[in-house]
What does this fold into?
Amino acid sequence: QVRLVESGGGLVQTGGSLRLSCAASGRSFGSYVVAWFRQAPGKEREFVGAASWSGNTTTYTDSVKGRFTISRDNVKNTVYLQMNSLKPEDTAVYYCTAKSGNYVSRDAARYYFWGQGTQVTVSS
It folds into this structure.
């Protein structure tokens, strides 16, 4: 069992930056694929980005490419989502999630450990 706890959300102005953290506990995080999803009010949960266990393979949804970066510190059992040039449409609850295996998936159904989410609000 892996427990995930997100932090770092908050209110930021358009163009600003935030770094979300996802701390894992329960077992070693190092062999898991990790991903970030987000859900805005009234919308379905949306894939943001994912990283392989090494961090060498990453994939992002088009709307965040070049602005968001996933990194991970497997020694600290922590994954980060650096978000730059934030836009009002990035406003959502952001969720960290993980799964075993090597396949870096964009499908939420493939992930089975989820955090509680952290709110990101970007003001215009």
